[in-house]
Specification:
Elements lengths: L2 H28 L5 H27 L3 H7 L1 H8 L22 H32 L10 H12 L12 H75 L1
Helix pairs in contact: 1-2, 1-5, 2-4, 5-6, 5-7
């Protein structure tokens, strides 16, 4: 069995596993589940996480060249460590919405924008859960509800940093560092994509103006040529009349 066949057979199951992982983790953290409820959530989290680890190891095992495969599939390693990142791939559907025909550059920008926005949303949501899980019962904690955690994640990802809510645990601070760097990177990608779109639109307008200018020049040249031909014809007829007289 090759990797393509393996991914085709396991793709839907792994997507369902990533959704189950997200729901179980969200439920456990937001509701502060305890006892049997927490046990069930932890079992779902461990089983789905194990499924992603097995998938990654199997694909690595069936790869003919292990090291080149590892280097080319670093995003898959990230998905193995953070299973909910697989949900970013679902955003691929949004890049195939029907519409007018687009250039290759426009299609690429659309994919970057969709993946960038989806990655940002998932990053903020997961960071909110992680910081709440780490901070909720810490001494002197200010992030004690999911609303607080979501607000903190948003202002941290955008590097606004109002300072009204700050993590006090080591885990919470590490989540903040990852969120800051990830937010800056994703914001840079989205900004660059928008700038590229603006530049292309401006260049398209310049090209249209240049085309119109060239058309005007061609029309003027044609008029000059016709006038010159008319003058030459008139001079020729005048010369013929003088010869006859």
């Amino acid at each position: 069995m090759d990797e393509t066949t393996w991914r085709r057979r396991t793709g839907p199951a792994l997507l369902a596993a990533s959704i189950a992982f997200l729901l179980a983790y969200s439920w456990r953290v937001i509701t502060a589940a305890d006892g049997p409820a927490a046990l069930v959530a932890n079992i779902v989290i461990i089983v789905t996480w194990a499924a992603f680890v097995v998938d990654y190891l199997v694909r690595l095992a069936i790869a003919p060249r292990k090291w080149p495969w590892f280097r080319r599939h670093l995003p898959d390693l990230a998905i193995t460590l953070i299973p909910v990142l697989r949900l970013v791939r679902v955003a691929k559907i949004l890049t195939r919405l029907p519409g007018r025909r687009r250039t290759h550059a426009a299609a690429l920008r659309t994919r970057i924008m969709v993946y960038g926005l989806a990655s940002t949303a998932i990053l903020i949501y997961i960071a909110s859960l992680q910081v709440l899980d780490a901070e909720r019962h810490a001494d002197g904690a200010t992030i004690i509800s999911f609303g607080d955690a979501l607000w903190w994640a948003c202002v941290t990802a955008t590097t606004t940093g109002f300072g009204d809510l700050t993590p006090v645990t080591t885990t919470g601070k590490l989540v903040g560092v990852v969120l800051m760097f990830g937010g800056v990177a994703l914001a840079g990608i989205i900004t660059a994509t928008l700038a590229s779109w603006v530049v292309e639109r401006g260049a398209r307008g310049d090209d249209a103006a240049a085309t119109a200018t060239r058309s005007d020049i061609h029309a003027l040249q044609a008029e000059i040529a016709a006038l010159r031909s008319s003058l030459e014809s008139g001079e020729s007829e005048g010369g013929d009349d003088r010869t006859v007289s």
